[in-house]
Design a protein that fits this description.
- By secondary structure, this protein is an all-alpha fold.
- It has helices at 3-33, 46-59, 63-85.
């Protein structure tokens, strides 16, 4: 492969990622508009973003869904711990 082919492939991959981001943002805006969700800004370390992206890729979902799953898992585990303590 020559340099121009590699650059074209890189640009195509970047364009696909941008389109995926635009589509995800549009879906988030639609959900916000329906009133079912609120928007929050999270500031994560580069390592946390890498882990989040890996999980999202493995699960085939968006970053936001991974964050929601982890928070729900934590909340469920916390409820179970409290129930075990009060027995």
């Amino acid at each position: 492969m020559d340099d121009s082919t590699t650059k074209n492939q890189d640009q195509e991959a970047l364009d696909r990622r941008r389109e995926q981001n635009r589509a995800a943002q549009q879906r988030r805006r639609q959900r916000l508009g329906m009133g079912g969700k609120i928007q929050m800004d999270l500031f994560l370390s580069p390592n946390a973003v890498q882990i989040l992206d890996s999980l999202a890729s493995e699960l085939g979902v968006e970053r936001q869904s991974v964050v929601e799953l982890v928070l729900q898992w934590y909340a469920d585990a916390r409820v179970k711990r409290r129930a075990a303590i009060t027995r």
